[in-house]
Amino acid sequence: AHPEIPHGKIRIGFTPDEEIGRGVDFFDVKRFGARFAYTVDGGFEGELEYENFNAASARIVVQGRNIHPGYAKDKMINALQVACEINSLLPAVQRPEHTQDYEGFYHLVGLSGTVEKASMEYIVRDHSRELFEEKKRFLADAVALLSRKYGEGTILLTVKDQYYNMREQVEPYPEVIGKAMQAMREAGVEPIVRPIRGGTDGARLSYMGLPCPNLFTGGMNFHGKFEYCSLDTMGRAVRTILNLARLWAE
User: Fold this and answer.
1) Which parts of the chain have pLDDT scores under 50?
2) Which region holds residue 209: left if phi is over 0, alpha if psi is between -120 and 50, else beta?
3) Cβ–Cβ < 8 Å for 189, 46
């Protein structure tokens, strides 16, 4: 991919704001000067990940019509109720709490407002690009249906793609995965290849021309009150990274 980059060189980079998907907004891949890279952002010991969700964010704004409730018949449009109606149209089985493995979801992460105006924030996820696009279309259809019911201009939907599944960018380079597996085994760790039910900076970097699978750290219960990291596993992660550096430099 970068024939001008010499062999035997190791680059180390640090990126901020990974959790909001903007960690590599200003990352200069060409200047970084690497053929391949790894993010160290995984969890369970041995995790090796090169598949992740396709991801989008969706914002829905509902413009209601506030009327005194004593005189509201056939006049009021309660923006909060419309928001609840939108959410009820999305399949309940496609929420994070009911999905696993390769199953995607709609996740309502924010809901606020009053009778007059309400807003909703979703994240939309799926490993399959086809199902990902289908989910976005379904959400748009739900909004269009209720827009016809309550009147054009009542509901505004904005969808933004955030990142895509890195698999198709990494698979053409099996040595990237092979060396990671070897480095883990030399550190006394058995590789566990599994899809990320989330994303990493590596997903975006892969589409910026730097194939970039993800390695374990030992962290668990992410985003929860009981998030923790195992010191023993962190030590084996360090040994894995050192092994990788040696393997690529040979």
Assistant:
1) 1-5
2) left
3) yes
